[in-house]
Specification:
Blueprint: H1 2-16, E1 19-22, H2 32-41, E2 46-52, H3 64-70, E3 77-83, H4 88-97, E4 101-104, H5 112-121, E5 125-130, E6 148-152, H6 168-181, E7 186-190, H7 198-204, E8 208-211, H8 213-217, H9 223-232
Parallel strand pairs: 1-8, 2-3, 3-4, 4-5, 5-6, 6-7, 7-8
Helix pairs in contact: 3-4, 4-5
């Protein structure tokens, strides 16, 4: 009985420590401010902002001016994923627009150390992201300097893609490295996250889940219900 009780308690603690970062890429852009406001009221932990330049990835989304406009609508952490190259010359703009975490791709810079330092210069948390085929070796030497690693479980560029389970071993390996080295790093996953695969992602080590289509479209767009289901499944 006590073993079961302890297991349930630990399981509950693990689940409640998982953060949900809804991607506004899936929101109604005609009312983006109120959508961000609604996500905060629904219990989102972060607001995930996907920035694409049509060069590093084959799509265009929003820039720093839009982030600046929506910043007053929420006090939540703005989790900004820069899929742009070269990344360095835009960091100051995104920092000043209200980003709290700025995540970049190692392939988008000539000097990873410099990019990390640049983000820290503006007192922002540093995230580094790996595409599905990007190897851990690209970022291993920089883990002690970052706050977050974002694993892409789809090819970056478009929302609504199907989850790629083949990235889960990479997530598990990163989790082992982080635990062994006692790094204080969040592990985030983004791409096709839904109610079925969210559990696998958490079991593999993710403690931040990014989701767009599932949060905005499932259960008739019940944001609170969908956020809670992703967190507690």
């Amino acid at each position: 009985f006590f073993d079961i009780l302890i297991f349930k308690t630990i399981n509950k603690l693990v689940m409640t420590s998982v953060k949900i970062s809804p991607s506004i890429l899936s929101c109604d852009f005609s009312k983006i401010g109120s959508e961000v406001e609604a996500l905060e009221k629904a219990g989102a932990d972060y607001i995930h902002v996907d920035v694409m330049d049509g060069h590093f990835v084959p799509n265009l989304t929003i820039g720093p001016d839009v982030i600046k406009k929506i910043r007053p609508y929420s006090k939540k952490i703005f989790d900004v994923h820069l899929m742009i190259s070269p990344v360095d010359k835009y960091i100051e703009q995104f920092a000043n627009a209200g980003s709290d975490i700025i995540t970049f791709h190692p392939e988008a810079t000539e000097n990873i150390d410099h990019t990390i330092s640049l983000i820290k210069k503006f007192n922002k948390k540093v995230g580094i992201s790996l595409k599905p085929k990007s190897e851990i070796s690209l970022i291993k030497n920089f883990l002690k300097k970052v706050d977050l690693v974002l694993i892409m479980s789809v090819e970056p560029g478009f929302g609504g893609q199907k989850f790629m389970p083949e990235v889960l071993p990479k997530l598990e390996e990163l989790k082992k490295i982080i635990d062994n080295e006692k790094y204080k790093i969040d592990l985030e996953i983004d791409g096709g996250i839904n109610f079925k695969n969210s559990k696998m992602a958490k079991e593999a080590g993710a403690n931040i889940l990014v989701s767009g289509s599932t949060i905005f479209k499932e259960n008739n767009g019940d944001l609170k219900k969908n956020i809670n289901l992703l967190r507690n499944n």
